[in-house]
Write a structure and sequence with these properties.
Layout: H1 3-24, H2 28-58, H3 71-84, H4 86-94, H5 99-110, H6 119-130, H7 137-148
Length: 150
């Protein structure tokens, strides 16, 4: 049985319990628990698909969903892409990679052998990006995301 079938079966079972509760005089708290759990199952199903949708849209432009990209940022980027296009969506993503982010992540990266000595390069690339000299921030962010999680 596929995972998607299991989700649908779970939702059908929860719908049946909610339907049954109307006829069995079940406690309102129990009914609310069923409804809350049903909402959680739906949320999980949507959440599980989010990185795939993000990558489907943005991977060809150099953005890949990792644990460094918060879920709300992915959701917002997808919505912005659908409503306002790629340029606006990319701006919403790059706005996350600011001075505070850099100062938080670079010390962690310096602890990784392969990054030792590359802090200067990352800082220069970030400054170039901030000054619109060329768009290399994606490469540096991608490198930092991959290796800061090692």
């Amino acid at each position: 049985m596929k995972a998607s079938d299991k989700f649908e079966d779970s939702l059908q079972a929860l719908d049946f319990l909610a339907y049954l509760s109307n006829y069995l005089s079940l406690d309102n708290e129990f009914v609310q628990t069923i409804n809350d759990f049903r909402a959680s199952v739906i949320d999980y199903k949507e959440l599980k698909a989010l990185p795939y949708e993000f990558n489907k849209i943005f991977a060809e432009y150099g953005w890949v969903a990792t644990d460094e990209i918060p879920i709300p940022l992915m959701e917002d980027a997808i919505d912005i892409y659908k409503n306002n296009g790629l340029e606006a969506a990319e701006k919403s993503i790059t706005d996350k990679f600011n001075d505070e982010y850099l100062e938080t992540k670079l010390p962690r990266m310096n602890a990784i052998f392969i990054f030792k000595g590359r802090e200067r390069l990352i800082r220069l690339a970030y400054e170039d990006h901030k000054n619109n000299r060329y768009p290399c921030i994606r490469t540096c962010c991608s490198i930092s995301n991959r290796w800061s999680n090692v």
